[in-house]
Sequence to fold (441 residues):
Amino acid sequence: MSPQSSAAFVADFRQAAPYIHYLSGKTIVLAVSSHVLLADKLASLAKDIQLLASLGVRLVLVHGTRQYLNNMMHAAGETLSYHRGWRITDEATLQQVKQACGMVRFDIEAALSSSPAQMPDRNQRRLRVASGNFLLAKPLGVLDGIDMGYTGRIRKVDAEAIQQRLNEGCLVLVSPLGQSLSGKSFNLGLDDAAQALAVTLKAEKLVFLTSDDGVRSADGTLLNQLTAADAQTLLDTSAHSADMSRMLKAAIYVLENGVRRAHILSGLNDGSLIAELFTRQGSGTALAQSSFMRIRAADNRDIGDIISLIAPLEHAGILLPRNREYLENHIHEFSVLEHDCHVYGCVALKVFEQQHTGELACLVVSPDAQDGGYGELLLDYVLKQAKARGVHTLFALSTNTGDWFDERGFETAELSELPPARQEQYLQNKRRSKIYRRSLV
Ligand code: ACO
Fold:
């Protein structure tokens, strides 16, 4: 490996580490569209699924059947009928659905059984797949005078049985077919089954693997992140394919019902699932109930993260050394920027109330997240905080980052302008930092 690619690998691996820890032991529902299954992508997808399983992720995979059905109907010279987006399932179609489910299941089971290179021990740690009668269904009935036949909706998910299989280390494979108490089978929508599974199992994530790259704005831009409210606005204001609308509605539903994240991404691009789950940028669209990024007051639980951020800069002489004891005593001055529950930046604000002045200090953004605007956001946050606390002049003392402050409205200042106590400290530590000032009035 060349030194450059080795460095890139190390950087990527470090970026992935928090996600690896975070996802271990969590449940993810993967809803895989039949487009993906028929596009010859199953082998590479299976490798990524095995990798997730080897990292301790509890996996439930629910698959679509539409393309299989379309092919079967096409071969028989028939077409599927729909009403209000729901497939009408007569007796003959139900038989085709059952056949399609059987084919898909065997294909998935075979792909997941093939040389599990990611598993530590090939013989003992083969990924086991469990299926069963996990979905109880009820008929959709008659819609606008049209008998929807064997098209059904979810009545109940047998969460206990699924959790048991997951506890045993199995991947649970679910087909979009449900059984009724009267012993009949009903054809279910992929999105309907996926959302019911994710909510009932209290999954961490619902991931749609589709033929789309993700959600696009009205002008066609791929959106990396969306809040549930943004997704609703998008649904209300711009046109989407029927599939995308269904996925967006399911994503909004699960987010409103306790699932932390929904993702819509391409299952056709090699590695997209791994990139989506283990990198900050992702590969498709990640959806959350509220914003992914927030800046908040730090507390003692953040001290470890703050030390990780500042320690290398202290060693490099860029920041004044601050030990754990200092941080414990001054944690109320700190704020942290977190994205997706990981801390990527910190900043401190010290207020000298009598002089109506404040000092911004310890502004740090993690090296893997720099140049993305986080520094600017932390600065804005501190400016607002300082104003709210009656600060008229905000100082920043820096040995290396003067230009950054200069470009953001700070001017050089004299030592004599600092509050007396701060002047004393400045003279004691002999760092000879440059002093910058920004007026807030
Ligand atoms: N001097 C001048 N410009 C800089 C510096 C620097 N030392 N560091 C980054 N920039 C520029 C980048 O080149 C980029 O410029 P561009 O927009 O023209 O491409 C821009 O700042 C990036 O701005 P943001 O994305 O808003 O900032 P970022 O999230 O990268 O955070 C920060 C900026 C906090 C300075 C970060 O680079 C960092 O953590 N540096 C190391 C720690 C440090 O020096 N902190 C300041 C200590 S002094 C104090 O806290 C008072």
In short: The pocket of acetyl coenzyme *A is lined by residues 313, 318-319, 360-365, 370-376, 396-398, 400-401, 403-404 (CB under 6 Å). The chain has a mean pLDDT of 91. The radius of gyration is 27 Å. The longest strand covers residues 342-352.
